[in-house]
Specification:
The protein has eight helices and seven strands; from the N terminus they run βαβαβαβαβαβααβα. It is an alpha/beta fold and 231 residues long.
Length: 231
């Protein structure tokens, strides 16, 4: 008997534990993460090792994260970002605004490289529909070893290239939470930048989690994972 679950850190043990009690011992975990965060490369393997001590017959196939920079032909996630920018341009009647793609920021260089990869893809898709495009992190850990997260969104919005005119903030977030919600950190950063720069007007895009193209990517990961050997 086989089951699959979308992998979030807080629900992993509960999902597998409930499944085990129901007679299921074969699971496929599909990560809802853009890149190889520590949650996938460290936390999940450690938790699975602990769970195997309690459930010796547990078999788990862990799928890949959503974005694969080795496959530049797959533009589905970048298309979501680009279309969200286009929706703002249409609804606000903007003409070639600047754009900033922002993610949370990460302790993992590979995750930041995924953001940069999506930014390059989205920039090519948007072409002359926008003036310029930058990528940014919402926040970062202090210390020079984390400089790869730069630039921060707050700094980009106050830079000479972006501090005047309309700027569309393309949010590389799947769901609102305390960061991308209506009164979250992204909104606060944009409001502070507008207050500091009177000529700046920011416009935030929709989030990515409700787009059906995300389901297509997860379906592909499901098929890949189903054909793989248990971890």
């Amino acid at each position: 008997m086989e089951s699959w679950a979308v992998c979030r850190r807080k629900s992993l043990s509960r999902r597998c534990g409930h499944g085990w009690q129901a007679g299921v011992n074969d699971f496929q975990l599909l990560p809802l993460f853009f890149g190889p965060s520590a949650a996938l490369t460290e936390y999940v393997p450690q938790r699975l090792e602990q769970m195997r001590r309690e459930f010796p017959a547990l078999r788990v196939r862990l799928g890949r994260w959503l974005v694969d920079p080795r496959n530049p032909r797959d533009t589905r996630l970048a298309s979501i970002l680009a279309d969200n920018v286009r929706a703002v341009i249409r609804s606000r009647h903007l003409t070639r605004p600047s754009a900033v793609l922002v993610d949370h920021g990460s302790l993992q260089r590979d995750v930041v490289e995924v953001r940069d990869f999506l930014g390059r893809q989205a920039g090519r898709l948007l072409g002359k529909e926008i003036g310029r495009l930058a990528v940014a992190s919402m926040e970062r850990r202090s210390g020079p070893e984390y400089d790869f997260c730069e630039p921060l969104l707050a700094a980009v919005l106050r830079s000479a290239e972006f501090a005047q005119g309309h700027v569309v903030v393309a949010r590389q977030f799947l769901s609102p939470g305390r960061h991308a919600g209506p009164a979250g950190d992204i909104a606060d950063i944009c409001a502070a930048a507008e207050q500091a720069e009177p000529g700046l007007k920011t416009h935030r895009t929709e989030l990515m989690g409700g787009d059906p193209r995300l389901i297509e990517v997860l379906a592909d990961r499901y098929r890949e994972t189903r054909a793989s050997a248990p971890a």
